[in-house]
Write a structure and sequence with these properties.
disordered C terminus; 8 helices; single chain; alpha+beta
Length: about 450
């Protein structure tokens, strides 16, 4: 029964939900593509479409501007660009989707990082007239850094190059070579015209030379792998449940959302960072006991022994426990306007745990244009991506981001006002750090 349940859960997980993000240079047509996708898949309500048609007429346009379905900010509509990340939720009979439409400007690179950080697929648009440009390479590099499993190259505005196969082939070849060099595992190129609707939802009669799937067909069929049996099982504890009622006088449960993997009753587990071991005596899901629970389910674990467990601790299988460390080396994207500097005192939030930390070194800053490294820049400014070395006040159980995108990620927070400063990915990336020099400890938060 358990095996059947797990197989069903994995099948549902792999076929019913896809998180994807769109990216591309300015005016490549991201918002128009998203609008066309929503319109042609009949995912737009009648009043939404009426509002777009009204706004388009007020701007002197005969046909509805489908980009207005996603560009919701007044500044976005006035400039005809995307500034913030716009999230849209829609569904077809074959799959549900969570879409993040991200900005194209260089100064909004941090927004693209935010939108793609949880995506299983990234769509990178290219204007067929311009081909692969600097921002295209930048977005491909970010997708590689974030370990996005699937990348779609959507060569847009094919109607403006007479639907020429040679134009599409040249762009696809150049981009694929660059992305493979970055380590992107899978690349699919699709020629489209978002404005005319070619190959977005319906096949194009203008490109009979293309025999691949339409854009929506690919989104509906791309495999989204959630391997419940082999990934590292992790439960960050969010809350300790102690009802202390007549009905449950001795109940002590540890609640949280499973970040990865599968937990089973009877399994030996370790509580980190203390390192104490025990066994799972029960699992409560939606108020009912179950024998097994898996990724993204919110559960309460019951343990055989009265071990000290509190919010911020991590429960893991004893046979698959990560090492704990106070020295964190990671690739980060700086998202705040205030620079991140060597000696910066911060709070590091990993899962449900937040600890004091200090930036000990910034070994390198990555230049995304050509993937070159600027050694020891001393600081990272907004939208910069680089390597950092951080010392934390308490030991943390960290996975490599390459092994787990959820438990290998963290954020740095300004302790003064709670502002998010930096998004981090633990471990190595293609932006390999130079050897970090040992320097004397700074005054202040010294661990």
């Amino acid at each position: 029964m358990t095996s059947t349940t797990e197989q069903l859960a994995e099948q549902l997980s792999a076929t019913t939900l896809l998180r994807f993000a769109t990216a591309g240079s300015v005016d490549d047509g991201k918002s128009t593509l998203v609008g066309r996708l929503l319109h042609d898949s009949k995912s737009v309500l009648a009043d939404q479409l009426e509002a777009v048609e009204h706004a388009s007429r007020n701007r002197g346009q005969e046909a509805p501007d489908l980009a207005l379905l996603t560009d919701g900010l007044r500044a976005e509509r006035e400039q005809g660009i995307t500034i913030d990340v716009a999230y849209r939720y829609f569904a077809t009979p074959r799959r549900r989707f969570i879409l993040a439409d991200t900005p194209g400007h260089v100064q909004y690179t941090r927004n693209m990082v935010t939108g793609a950080s949880t995506a299983e697929l990234t769509v990178i648009l290219v204007d067929a007239r311009n081909g692969v440009v600097e921002q295209t390479r930048r977005h491909a590099a970010i997708a590689a850094l974030l370990r996005v499993p699937h990348v779609v190259l959507a060569v847009n505005k094919m109607d403006l190059v007479d639907y020429a196969e040679s134009v599409f082939a040249a762009i696809a070849e150049e981009f694929t070579a660059y992305a493979l060099e970055l380590g992107v595992p899978e690349i699919t190129a699709i020629p489209i015209s978002a404005l005319a609707g070619d190959n977005v939802v319906d096949p194009s009669a203008n490109m009979d030379w293309y025999g691949g799937p339409t854009f929506l067909e690919h989104l509906e069929t791309v495999p989204v792998s959630h391997d419940l049996s082999h990934c590292h099982a992790r439960l960050p504890v969010q809350y300790v449940i102690r009802p202390q009622t007549a009905e449950h006088p001795d109940y002590r449960g540890y609640a949280g959302q499973i970040a990865a993997g599968t937990f089973r009753v009877g399994e030996e587990v370790t509580v980190l960072p203390s390192g104490r071991t025990t066994r799972i005596s029960g699992i409560d899901l939606l108020g009912k006991p179950v024998d097994v629970a898996w990724t993204t389910q919110s559960v309460t674990l019951l343990l055989e022994d009265d071990v000290d467990v509190s919010r911020g601790d991590l429960i893991v299988p004893s046979k698959d426990a990560p090492a704990t460390t106070q020295d964190v080396e990671a690739t980060v994207c700086h998202v705040a306007d205030e620079p991140l500097t060597v000696g910066h005192r911060v709070l590091l939030k990993h899962g449900t745990r937040t600890v004091k930390a200090i930036v000990k070194d910034i070994p390198s800053r990555l230049t995304l244009d050509d993937l070159s490294l600027h050694p020891h820049p001393g600081r990272l400014v907004a939208n910069d991506i680089g390597r950092v070395k951080i010392r934390t006040a308490e030991a943390l159980p960290l996975d490599s981001y390459a092994d787990s995108r959820r438990t290998g990620a963290f954020i740095l927070i300004d302790p003064a006002d709670g502002t998010t400063l930096t998004a981090g990915m633990v471990g190595e990336s293609f932006a390999s750090p130079e050897p970090v020099r040992d320097e004397g400890d700074d005054d202040g938060w010294d661990f």
